[in-house]
Amino acid sequence: MRFDEGRAGVGKIGVAGAVAMAVTVLAVVGAACVGVWSTRASPAPRSTELDLSEFQLTFDEPFDKLDVSAWGPGTRWIAHTPWNGDFGDAQFVNPTPGFPFSVENGILKIEARRGNDGKWRSGLLASTDHYGRGFSQQYGYFEMRAKLPKGSGLWPAFWLVSNTDPDTSVELDILEYYGRFPDSYQSVVHLWKKSSRGRALHDVKHHPVPAHSLTQAFHTYGALVDPDWIVLYLDRHEVTRMATPPEFRRPLFILLNLAMGGGWPIDQAPNPSFMEVDYVRAFKKRDQ
């Protein structure tokens, strides 16, 4: 979700157990948003480099092959959100040979393509299924190395979710990139209220980068989550941090996708478009 400097966009769906929920659109003019704010991250912490010497690898997806099914069980990834909620202007489709996923030389390509019917289709991967089977982890460092697609209307993301609590679902968008704005990306902490006992929070951090740099080369996007801090990294250098909401002190599962739109037009999006992913990994402190 973004609300900043005259740019209006749409966030990914707020998770609510196994029930799909509607995307909320925030318009800049006349928007009434409680608990929603946006800040541009300070470049000062960028000198802080991540040290993983006290961590152990707990999840390693090198994409030498892809173990995916539509809904599981028994595969490393499923091709939909576990709560069965699509978002954006491209349908996330069941995997078929060569589309929307392909793997070559250790690189996963997620393809967005407009069909002869004029509709866009693309891909999403989630590390747990509808019943919570698969990989999730409380605390630790989560990282993706990827090259992002170039073009207005494209909306790739790398994110973490926990949605088992009856009152509040949590979402950490480590990377959200709007192709319309090639000189920045954003990270977002979401709390999605599911009952009167829950609370809502949407904290957006914008990270300036050299224009088109994220579409020209591979970079790593990471988040360290511990009981006190959520720390965001680009190429293992800190870009921002925020205090960990208590709702984030629970296991998180991994999602990555190539979506479209997010509140922006898709009429100029290249057809086809590709998000390239080298790996997805997770680490955990040995004493946790």
What's the short story on this structure?
The chain has 288 residues and is mainly β. It has one helix spanning 213-216, and strands at residues 3-4, 7-8, 36-40, 55-61, 68-69, 77-78, 91-92, 101-104, 107-114, 120-122, 124-126, 136-137, 140-147, 154-162, 168-176, 184-193, 201-208, 219-225, 229-234, 237-243, 252-260, 273-285. 1% of the residues lie in helices and 44% in strands.
Can you walk through the features of this model?
The chain has 288 residues and is mostly beta strands. It has a single domain (3-285), classed as Jelly Rolls (Sandwich). It contains 1 helix and 22 strands. It has one helix at residues 213-216, and strands spanning 3-4, 7-8, 36-40, 55-61, 68-69, 77-78, 91-92, 101-104, 107-114, 120-122, 124-126, 136-137, 140-147, 154-162, 168-176, 184-193, 201-208, 219-225, 229-234, 237-243, 252-260, 273-285. The strands form 4 sheets. Strands 4, 7, 8, 9, 10, 13, 18, 19, 20 and 22 form a 10-stranded mixed β-sheet that branches. Strands 3, 11, 12, 14, 15, 16, 17 and 21 form an 8-stranded mixed β-sheet that branches. A hairpin with a 2-residue loop joins strand 8 (101-104) and strand 9 (107-114). It is globular and about 50 Å long. Mean pLDDT is 88; it is low at 1-10, 15-38 and 42-46.
